[in-house]
Prior knowledge:
mainly alpha, two-stranded parallel sheet, 6 helices
Amino acid sequence: xxxxxxxxxxxxxxxxxxxxxxxxxxxxxxxxxxxxxxxxxxxxxxxxxxxxxxxxxxxxxxxxxxxxxxxxxxxxxxxxxxxxxxxxxxxxxxxxxxxxxxxx
Length: 104
């Protein structure tokens, strides 16, 4: 069953802070989002949660997210507790393992 994406909060804010992301359809197979919904910050934060929970290092690179953004906004990204703890630990200790994500 495919769920239609509804992110709440009406239309969501247009994305001014987050970069354009290449979306891996395998990470959102169970939802359908309109192109307008995919351009919102709310969708992009939701998608980041999917990537950080289930994605590969390539998926992380393809988001074009800088590690500084993740450090500052991890609390606003919906993640399972264990996944959040891992990313918090990672960001607190060393994020040099993903230099390509930092260089965009």
